[in-house]
Amino acid sequence: MRRLGRTGGGAAALLLIVGLMTACSSSTNHTASCTVSSNGTPVTSGVPTGPSGTNLALRPEVATGYRTGMTPVKTGDFAVSTANPVATEAACKVLRDGGTAADALIVAQTVLNLVEPQATGIGGGAFLMYYDATTKTVDSYDGRETAPAAATEDYLRYISAADHTVPQPNARASGRSIGVPGVLRLLETAHNEHGKQPWKDLFTPAINLADGGFKISPRMASQINDSKADLARDDNAKAYFLQPDGSPKTAGTTLTNPAFGKTLSAIATDGPNAFYTGAIAADIVDTTATTSGGRTPGQLSLADLQSYQAKKRTAVCSPYRGHEICGMPNPSSGGITVESALGILSNFDLSSMKPSDLSGDGNTARDGGKPTPEAVHLIAEAERLAYADRDKYIADSDFVPLPGNSPQTLLNPDYLKQRAALIDPSKSLGTAKPGDFGPVPVGNGPQQPEHGTSHISIVDKYGNAAAMTTTVESAFGSFHFVDGFILNNQLTDFSAEPLDKDGNPIANRIDPGKRPRSSMAPTLVFDRNPDGTRGPLYAVTGSPGGAVIIQFVVKTLVGLLDWGMNPQQAVSMIDFGAANTPTTYLGGEHPAVNAADNGDHDAVVQKLRTLGDQVSVTPQSSGLSALVRDGNGWIGGADPRREGAVLGSPR
Fold it and tell me: What is the pTM of this model?
């Protein structure tokens, strides 16, 4: 296999990350700028506490504890939030220099590839919601990975038709999990339609960082430690992420990635074709097919890469509380399920159930207070009903049609009012039944989590906005590392079983060229005019978190639109909600939750359990961001559970 460059350590030219346990948001009486100090924290930062001492091993992707007391960032006419302050600063400078949100996305994505490789990179996929202020249009871009043409219905179950051994060492860490990466084609399409700065110039920040060096952040170091055994199976990953003795590289260690610098240089010069054809494509195919470390090879081909196309979809939009919510359609289930839950909740007076302790300027108020058990119960029940429909009906609509061939069938207000009537304020549904839309051609199954995921929220000075959720699926994807980047394990988002227990084909089964169902929910919120038409852009939000993304986004939108929270309060608020199971989650990483003894001494937990909820206080790992318009510009909030930052133009 041809190597584009050597990976390893080196002298640091950019000392931009050390000790990212500090806050990355300004206090309310300061404005943001595009400047990060030498220790990685914005000059406008406050000083919150460090990690809460929660057990990081419980999290599918580790987080950095909880930064209490974070306060919202006020900016002028542009703002950006990513999961890492180095990426935020790089994208902010693009906006400062006149770039659009589409331009800044390219910089944010490529820098995140270096400083957050466990979550995202060009070896993965993404979904993008984009608002064009000139045309007042909303575009949905689908850069989801696809299954190779050679994939059979048993591709994730058996090595071959003759050998029913499961893929080794497991489906995820084998080559079978790797789909055709889609994020670069998505970025190309969005840039062609909405970009302003030259494509080639937008790769310079990441190239400089790759060649000059950067410091491993605490969160990246924690995930390297957690994944060290799997990373060691891949020679390239082992050389890059681990010490010569096999121990994990630690926080503060300087990394250089000249291989990635060369990869990006080729893409900058020749466009995405440099990735999907030629030497880089050959390296991806060879790496997917490797048997080193006892891994079962994947069957990705050069033709699979060459034929990949990002797709524009029709955004899913529906009303809520005088606003219009716009999200991703399938193959993501995020937009439909978020809007379904909100449509059910629109039948209840949530404004009367505001969290306690929201007044004042103390840390409790800044952290979003504490939701009432009545509100948690109601929202969790609405989510159970929405997830029930999601699990049965939503998959890649290029292969499996939705009921009525439209998302609006599941979002019909009369239908959602009927669903709301199923909620009992004194008793949990436990597991909800899906709605009945008559015979359907297939059943569906639950989704594997996408815990190696990141989110980017941007508004530019022209009024354009981007919400992009980007992923390699699980932390460090498939653990296959090539030419400086991680390859995804996105195909494990398919159901490994092709048939349900009754012998019906599962909608989310694997098929050649198919895109696995996702829960990513990049979201744009608009004001709604009195005549029902779409008004000005109001908010940009989204989160990583696998199937739980839907719950994270719902609680944030409720915080903003029902409870009048500022964006920092809304994302800092306790993560709570439910999929379609009897378990309701109340994130134990939050300082307002008493997680001792499995939450037995927490008043909200106690009340929910009397309603039949099986409450879990397992720490949650959201990575939310929210940018909200006010009269003078934008106000932003970044998730205290990760290393995120909000920066923008000063007021």
Answer: 0.92
